[in-house]
Specification:
Largest sheet: 9 strands, mixed
CATH topology: Spore Coat Polysaccharide Biosynthesis Protein SpsA, Chain A
Radius of gyration: 19 Å
Distance between the termini: 36 Å
CATH architecture: Alpha-Beta Complex
Order of helices and strands: HEHEEEHEEHEEHEHH
Helix content: 25-40%
Low-confidence stretches: none
Number of domains: 1
CATH class: Alpha Beta
Number of strands: 9
Shape: globular
Mean pLDDT: 91
CATH superfamily: Spore Coat Polysaccharide Biosynthesis Protein SpsA, Chain A
Structural class: alpha/beta
Length: 269
């Protein structure tokens, strides 16, 4: 199933039109909160469950990323702008020349219209019992707060017989004020924390969890992700060497270790 059909199914709309189409707003309690998601053909099958895990009354922005053809220029085309299942939803196609996670995320931020933005991937899930707590994070918060860190939890299954899988918990800055104007930076493992603090704002923590299911997959798929990450991390270090140097070198070491382990399994070593 193509990504547009998956988005259509996930949003329960009759179609993603070729031209932007506005739909009459349905009365619903509104929150000053946008969710920004980038997706692609390979990950579109995750979308339906991700969207179902979101609270109502928020704005949802989905950016479908598509590599440009040889004769195409980069472009952003809004395909849908209206109400779906109690959320104001905007869907856009982003045709890119050269892949960068930061640029794709920034495209999604620019399409958001509410003050607080949470970035979320199609293989992330929110826990419904935490919806009220999540939406209350930004209510009455101090004006000096620019971002909120949340814990991302998941499980990486064993890829070798007789070995155990591993649970992980990783802190991510997930929520931030759009009015700050901060943007993501980094070809892969992109970050926005430094841009927020450099603007004079502080970052606080929340105990609202995010469940990540993306590593619960087959060895071949994970191997492809690790090869991509290693390649992009090398580009990041080579082209932007002064930005979060220690962080990116550590990320490269970790991804290389996982890649070598997976390639060893694949080759029977």
């Amino acid at each position: 199933m193509k990504v547009k059909e998956r988005i259509k199914k996930a949003l329960k709309v009759k179609g993603i039109p070729e031209e932007p189409k506005s739909v009459e707003t349905v009365e619903q309690e509104q929150h000053d909160f946008s969710f920004a998601c980038i997706t692609c053909q390979q990950d579109a099958h995750y979308l339906e469950d991700m969207i179902a895990s979101l609270p109502k009354g928020v704005e949802l922005v989905i950016v479908n990323t598509i590599p440009c053809k040889d004769d195409e220029e980069e472009s952003i085309v809004l395909r849908f702008d209206g109400e779906t299942d109690g959320r104001h939803t905007r869907v856009a196609d982003y045709h890119y020349k050269r892949w960068r996670f930061d640029k794709a995320r920034n495209v999604s931020i620019d399409l958001c219209q509410r003050e607080w933005v949470m970035w979320i991937d199609s293989d992330d899930r929110l826990v419904p019992s935490y919806h009220d707590q999540l939406l209350s994070i930004t209510q009455g918060v101090s004006a000096c707060v620019g971002g909120v860190t949340m814990g991302c939890f998941g499980f990486q299954p064993p890829y070798e017989e007789g070995k155990r899988g591993a649970y992980y918990a990783t802190p991510h800055l997930r929520i931030f004020r759009r009015s700050i104007g901060a943007k993501f930076r980094g070809i892969v493992h992109e970050q926005i924390d430094a841009q927020i603090t450099e603007a004079g704002f502080v970052v606080v923590e929340s105990d609202v969890p995010i469940i990540h299911i993306g590593y619960v997959t087959d060895t071949k798929t994970l191997l492809g992700k690790m090869r991509r990450n290693v390649s992009l991390l090398c580009q990041q270090i080579a082209t932007d060497p002064d930005y979060l140097t220690e962080y990116y070198r550590k990320a490269l070491t970790n991804n290389l270790q996982t890649l070598n382990e997976l390639e060893g399994l694949q080759n029977g070593r």
